[in-house]
């Protein structure tokens, strides 16, 4: 599972370099999640997941509060959740999740980002079957054995628990996200380096140097799109 953690670190490093953009995306995602049900994370699981991830990206409280307050108001803004799937060089696969109030605009922009950078969009399901929705929780301050014991005592099912770069990583089915976090919080863990539900590839691919450059341009183009919230892929960045 070490390669998976490296890919997540790579994604976080990319986003950390564009804080204003990531804050704006989180603001929209929090607003949409809050509109799905009660704008209260205690009773709205979707909102709680977004807020936990926002903490690991250091999203300011003011942005979070503003998005939730907006959801409580009478705004008539309607956003659709869309998923696009596509292919890059040398067998690379990409999933793009978007929130949009203009489907035609978003579809056109995503298609262009693929085609202008050597990729192409596929039909729904052409890529996602090779990925698993996965809860990923990262923490420090506890040993691997301690985390194993905590989860065992709490009777929480997980796929794997690994240690890399002094970080203990827990991988579980997406439905176990809250159970894993609650077990760790009850054991005294107060901060997480990673806390999100993501799409992890079942098999990774390694690209040649030239293909990697082309692939990175495509990912950057997709992530730069205003309507795109998340981009997942199966490219292994190794020990970068």
Automatic annotation (TrEMBL):
Ranges of residues in domain TACO1/YebC-like second and third: 79-235
Cell compartments where the protein resides: Cytoplasm
Recorded GO MF terms: DNA binding
One Gene Ontology cellular component annotation held by this UniProt entry: cytosol
GO biological process entries: regulation of DNA-templated transcription
InterPro entries noted in UniProt: Integrase-like_N, TACO1_YebC-like_2nd/3rd_dom, TACO1_YebC_N, Transcrip_reg_TACO1-like, Transcrip_reg_TACO1-like_dom3, Transcrip_reg_TACO1_YeeN, YebC-like
Broad class of the protein's primary localization: cytoplasm
Keywords: Cytoplasm, DNA-binding, Transcription, Transcription regulation
Organism superkingdom: Bacteria
Domain TACO1/YebC-like N-terminal residues, every copy: 3-73
Similarity remark: Belongs to the TACO1 family. YeeN subfamily.
Record protein name field: Probable transcriptional regulatory protein ICC18_27515
């Amino acid at each position: 599972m070490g390669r998976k953690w490296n890919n997540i670190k790579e994604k976080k490093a990319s986003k950390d370099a564009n804080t204003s953009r990531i804050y704006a995306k989180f603001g929209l995602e929090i607003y949409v999640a809050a509109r799905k049900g009660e704008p209260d994370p205690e009773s709205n699981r979707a909102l709680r997941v977004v807020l936990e991830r926002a903490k690991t990206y250091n999203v300011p409280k003011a942005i979070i509060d503003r998005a939730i307050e907006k959801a409580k108001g009478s705004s008539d803004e309607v956003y659709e959740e869309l998923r696009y799937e596509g292919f890059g060089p040398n067998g690379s696969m990409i999933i793009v999740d978007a929130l949009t109030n203009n489907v035609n605009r978003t579809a056109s922009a995503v298609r262009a980002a693929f085609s202008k950078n050597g990729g192409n969009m596929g039909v729904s399901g052409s890529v996602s079957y090779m990925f698993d929705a996965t809860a990923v929780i990262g923490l420090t301050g506890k040993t691997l054995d301690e985390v194993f014991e905590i989860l065992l005592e709490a009777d929480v099912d997980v796929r794997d628990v690994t240690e890399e770069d002094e970080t203990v990583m827990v991988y579980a089915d997406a439905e176990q996200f809250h159970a894993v976090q609650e077990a760790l919080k009850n054991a005294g863990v107060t901060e997480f380096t990673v806390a999100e539900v993501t799409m992890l590839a079942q098999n990774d691919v390694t690209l040649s140097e030239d293909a990697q450059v082309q692939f990175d341009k495509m990912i950057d183009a997709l992530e730069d799109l205003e309507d795109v919230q998340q981009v997942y892929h199966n490219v292994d960045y190794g020990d970068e």
